[in-house]
Amino acid sequence: MSDTPEKREGAVLDKTMSKTKVDSSQDNSVMGNEIYGETAEYDDNVSRADLEKQKTAQGEAHFHRLGWKRLTVILIVEAIALGSLSLPKAFATLGMVAGTIVSVGLGLLAIYTSDVVGEVKIKFPECAHYADAGRLIAGRFGYELIGAMFVLQLVFLVGSHCLTGTIAFGTIVDITKTGTCSLVFGGVSAIILLILAIPPSFAEIAILGYIDFVSIVLAIGITIIATGIQAADHPGLHNVAWSAWPKEDLSFADAFIAITGIVFAYSFSICQFSFMDEMHTPTDYKKSIWALGLIEIFIYTVTGALIYAFVGPEVQSPALLSARGDIPRIAFGVALPVIFISGSINTTVVGRYIHGRVYKNSIIRYINTPKGWATWLALVFAITVIAFVIAEAIPFFSDLLSISSSLFVSGFTYYFPPIFWFMLIKEGPIWAPHNRVKTVLNGLAFIVGMVVLVAGTYSSIVDIQHNYKAGNVGKVFTCKPIG
Hints:
Shape: globular
Structural class: mainly alpha
Number of helices: 16
Largest sheet: none
């Protein structure tokens, strides 16, 4: 590995990106302390201005340590979690052929739109979060609108993980026999999400990402193998009633609930500005999004197709519930790290956005002072409480993901990036030879995003009403078993 500071991954102050000028001896001492998690010692006689300069340099060093490999891990952790658990049910609704086409097609389109997001970040490095790009295209209105969507989507994501944690604990303990109230497990899930979200730096969280990735791969692998063995024993693989075509009497709402489940699975671009803002070499983002995108497409398509082929139309969402016997308990036990680590990263992202906005012109934003830590902990606590309320208010997995996908992911992944391309980074007319393919891709992404926004939102509302009328779920804040 090269010893060049700008290339050394994990602990580098990128001097070209530093917003505060400090002398070289000061840089070295700050970096040496920050790399190993220590706190720099200061002379009692140092002036307040010098102290702020040191704290600022310390913060810049601490929050610019992310390389492309760790970015890939962070993106995987943030992306390959709940999405993979909803795919088999989507395949059961759409059929094997349409499910595969939609999974691969939306995945490739998501890679392209993430590349557009990366280009915007490179051209406008001041964009620390998605909302900052909104300011570039629509001024203060765009900043506030996208900022509000950004916060709501990430809080919904944390709520989804809290709900999944409730389902996981309820399955592991089997509350149908013990009689434990689901609210207890919801509270435990919220507490775990809160604790894991305390570290404010993505470079620190990336260390947990390796555990997260192994967790989801093992959980999915256990479910695939178990359902395959069970299908072979009974009723026999050739007798499983999976279909290449959509299920009979497929309603418009059911079809779009399935599509929005796949859209949710490719929601990684929402955090890309935030993650790239911590990179010491932001131009390396292309390696990360292609590595992530191809891994996602493979895992999602294989997971959706195989579990559906082994279980048939009765496959459940989340998919870990689809096996018989004690397998769901084992799979959820293995999946606990991914449920909580992935969820906590979303808390960190939205917390960093809010905290950085409130303390934009203060060293408190670096979270390396007593007040910085106090405000950070209070904010993480508030976000987690709100997410817990959402999880208990919408206690059904597929529809919670569908609402999130329709209202927010449709924009962050599909229709906002084309707007960025047309308004911010397009060079020359759209019919110019070098722009023709990009024009088609951006036009397609915009149409997909708008269709999901309108049709998906309508379908989510219809399906929620149907579930409540049919008695498929209990009341809000219920003790009834979930999942």
